[in-house]
Design brief:
Strand content of chain B: 5-15%
Strand order of the largest sheet of chain A: 10-2-12-11
Helix content of chain B: 25-40%
Helix content of chain A: 10-25%
CATH topology of the largest domain in chain A: Alpha-Beta Plaits
Number of helices of chain A: 11
Number of strands of chain B: 6
Number of helices of chain B: 7
Radius of gyration of chain B: 38 Å
Oligomer: heterodimer
Number of domains of chain A: 2
Largest sheet of chain B: 2 strands, antiparallel
Shape of chain A: elongated
Shape of chain B: elongated
Largest interface: A-B, 94 and 82 residues
Order of helices and strands of chain A: HHHEEHEEHEEHEEEHHEHEEHH
CATH architecture of the largest domain in chain A: 2-Layer Sandwich
Distance between the termini of chain B: 105 Å
Largest sheet of chain A: 4 strands, mixed
Strand order of the largest sheet of chain B: 1-2
Chain lengths: 364, 237
């Protein structure tokens, strides 16, 4: 039968019949689908590199630090210690040190002493197992022109054959452990919080890496792990790592979480001094318990000229900068000598000549 | 019905051409994903190790101990072992035959016997004649450097290593002579300490502009300058 020109095409819906697949439409749809699937598969290629070896069920179901009971915490610590040993070949002494009652940590730094040698920076890197590639450092030593406290003019990338430079002074900046921390306020999931001893900590297993806290911090104290941290190896090929670890401080971090200075909790909650303090060659760094009136930091805050960085922001830092006051070296500065004449005990009508000739012509 | 219902060939093509591009478009995307430029997030190269030798927490100076002893031709000897043989001389300054490495640059304090006891050579002497052992040398320094000694006692001057929590361990407060040479107390201003590499991350690598920031002109930030509207003019009125 010769088809009539007026007869509708077999797959014309206008004919009311079921559309039939022609070779053309089959090829068109087939090529489109195949290309789409190819593109989808290609787009998923990076998943090949996704490391699932460290994604265990226990880790996936782990609860927030504050919700972990002692028994649960023990399990978590054992699991993390096992993972660290598997990955890095270092047997860690992993603990969860708790804050002590009546202890609030405070740091004081003598600006007149710091020579900008950056030893604190590297002692921190070593103590806290910071990534060496990409390079991460908690402490920035700002080189500032003398006579200015304008941090906009500071340079932390200075490179000199010798320090200190006579034209500059040095101001190390790290986490200020604020009593009113903006970083904690912005965290959407409470992965970072302030501990009773004043240290703001991060649960690395809870952090989702949104980096809000990094943006909120006015001191640029927070660091983000863009990649998996990499460490150096010694001559035998073993990873160089500090085995003294604490859950909330220096256990190895993973990709995509925040970290920052935590006053070396693995040391300080065991009563020791932070690593950056012990290595300071000039004794510019001071650390201690502010609630103990006899502690070094209490004495410094009582007797020295102290200031905090960006006080106007109301962050109330626990990190103080101090410098020596002018000692009364000249006779005129000693009490009851010199100044005694300027403020006579009489009504002030007499003794005008000594209290200042500039006021003589003032109208009565 | 007929051709008019299915539209002209031109209009059919114009209806179909976006869908005709979907397949090749996906193919191009697939090729791009597989063979396109790779995003490198990790800086290449080997990580730089921290030089632990630079991170010693030992005191800057080794003191002579108490009783003080020095090495003489390979043998450890105390002061009195030799000085028992010599008559003490009050003549100063005097050319030294021994202790030639000692350079005395301590301001007006330029006499050996200001600090060293003339007869008891393993002891120090205060300006009031009291004799103290070498291990309490900070009391001698305190006779002139009172405010610094006061700061040191409070912990505001000098290094303190060890434990902040004294119930768990010792707080080791370094003494004056563990950092300062008593004969030339000024610590050399130019200690050859090589600065270690600074932080390297995208934000840090932006570099620092050397041009003064507009805020730098704000009086709050200018410590050295005098702010306008200061007291001198007002006082002259």
């Amino acid at each position: 039968m010769i088809p009539d020109n007026d007869q509708p095409l077999p797959n014309d819906p206008a004919a009311g019949g079921k559309p039939r697949v022609t070779r053309r439409s089959f090829l068109r749809a087939g090529i489109g689908t195949a290309s789409g699937l190819a593109a989808l598969a290609a787009a998923l290629v990076p998943l090949k590199d996704f490391d699932t070896s460290d994604l265990t069920l226990g880790k996936f179901l782990q609860r927030h630090y504050k919700e972990l009971g002692p028994a649960e915490m023990d399990q978590v610590l054992q699991r993390i210690a096992r993972e660290v040993e598997q990955r890095y070949g270092v047997r860690p002494e992993l603990r969860d040190l708790k804050p002590k009652d009546g202890v609030e940590f405070v740091y004081a730094l003598h600006l007149g002493r710091c020579i900008g040698c950056r030893k604190c920076v590297h002692a921190c890197v070593q103590e806290n197992n910071l990534s060496r590639l990409p390079e991460m450092q908690y402490i920035r030593v700002l080189e500032m022109p003398r006579g200015s406290v304008d941090v906009e003019r500071a340079n932390h990338n200075y490179d000199r054959p010798q320090v200190p430079d006579p034209e500059h002074y040095y101001m190390p900046v790290q986490c200020h452990q604020c009593a009113n921390p903006p970083c904690v306020k912005v965290c959407p999931i409470e992965a970072t919080w302030q501990e009773p001893d004043g240290v703001t900590v991060i649960d690395y297993d809870w952090c989702i890496g949104c980096r809000y806290c990094e943006a909120a911090c006015p001191y640029w104290a927070r660091r983000f792990n863009f990649t998996k941290p990499r460490f150096t190896h010694d001559a035998n090929g073993a990873v160089i790592m500090n085995p003294n670890m604490n859950y909330l401080s220096n256990r190895p971090r993973k990709e995509g979480v925040m970290e920052k200075c935590h006053f070396c909790l693995q040391r300080t909650r065991a009563g020791r001094m932070p690593a950056c303090l012990e290595v300071c060659p000039v004794g510019a760094r001071k650390f201690g318990n502010i609630l103990d009136p006899e502690s070094e930091v209490s004495q410094i805050l009582k007797t020295k000229h102290v200031f905090v960085l960006k006080q106007e922001l109301g962050t109330i830092p626990r990190f103080f900068y101090y410098f020596d006051q002018e000692y009364p070296r000249t006779a005129g500065c000693l009490p009851n000598e010199g100044y005694g004449d300027a403020f006579p005990e009489s009504d002030g009508s007499g003794d005008q000549g000594r209290s200042g000739s500039a006021l003589q012509g003032a109208p009565a | 019905m007929g051709p008019s219902a299915r539209g002209s060939p031109e209009s059919r093509l114009s209806r179909r051409w976006p869908s005709a591009l979907v397949g090749p478009g996906f193919l191009v995307l697939a090729a791009w994903f597989l063979y396109g430029p790779e995003t490198v997030l990790v800086p290449a190269g080997e990580p730089i190790a921290v030089d632990s030798r630079l991170l010693s927490i030992a005191p800057r100076r080794e003191t002579l101990g108490d009783p003080p002893s020095i090495e003489v031709e390979g043998v450890r000897r105390t002061c009195v072992e030799c000085h028992a043989l010599f008559e003490p001389s009050v003549e100063t300054p005097k050319r030294l035959l021994m202790h030639a490495h000692v350079r005395l640059d301590h301001g007006i304090n330029d006499r050996c016997r200001n600090c060293h006891h003339l007869q008891e050579r393993d002891k120090l002497v205060l300006h009031d004649g009291n004799v103290i052992p070498f291990r309490e040398s900070q009391l001698l320094c305190a006779k002139c450097h009172g405010p610094t000694f006061r700061d040191w006692e409070r912990g505001a001057h000098g290094r303190s290593n060890g434990y902040w929590d004294r119930s768990r361990g010792q707080l080791v407060r370094l003494k004056c002579s563990q950092c300062h040479d008593p004969h030339t107390p000024r610590i050399p201003a130019m200690d050859p300490l090589v600065p270690m590499p600074g932080p390297r991350d995208p934000r840090a690598d932006r570099g620092v502009s050397t041009a003064p920031h507009p805020g730098a002109q704000h009086p709050v930030f200018r410590l050295g300058g005098t702010d306008s509207g200061g007291s001198p003019e007002r006082m002259e009125k």
